[in-house]
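Dear colleagues,

As part of the handover before I leave the project, I'm documenting each prediction I ran so the next person doesn't have to rerun anything. This entry is a single chain, and its sequence is reproduced below.
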Amino acid sequence: MSWKNEYRSLYYEGAPEPEDPILIEGKVALLVIDVQNTYLERAAPETLTGKDLERYHAWTPFHRRMNDVVIPNTQRLIGAFRKRELDVIFARIACLCEDGRDRSLSQKKPGWNNLLLPRNNWESQIVDALAPRAGEIVVTKTTDSALTGTNLRLVLTNMGITHVVCAGIFTDQCVSSTVRSLADESFDVIVAEDACAAGSQALHDREIEIINMIYASVMSSDEVLSYLPG
């Protein structure tokens, strides 16, 4: 089954197949969202006990997907875009103030999303495996959406970009927020499903189904690569 029939929610059962995207050199960009050191860092399990050890094991499937699926596929996408001299853009969560007072409310609430990632700290940097090259655009945000919290919309418009391929984490949070914002601004969005991850596979699958066809075309990395120009 191809991307044209997969990941369909109740809303799109029986709907016509979407048309093939037409990706034109200079008008398509890859956007890699929030694949940062803080999310891949793990304590040694032998140092953990109780709830901390339970949480370690609960997050093991995420780390396995990131290392075995998401990062390799994102590397392939980045390599293909660079080879064709297509734009590769990165977004990362990072606050400008050391105390984080410039963060949006969603990043100040108690719990997992309470992120304090000063922009110069190691934790806020993009992982080495996907490191931006000199001259590639990196936008810094204190919001979930890479569009609403930065000047990315203006940058994409100025560059003549009409199609944005999205990869990154977390599918149900920053990726979804970015995809929805891009769609609302009339960018044509493609999500590389196997270059994204959520905290659990169930959360990932649910969000992919929700955003597919209305906000984005959801494809595998191989399917994305088959449409690239050049």
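The chain is about 35% helix and 15% strand. Residues 24-227 form a domain with the Rossmann fold fold (CATH 3.40.50.850).

All the best with the project,
I.
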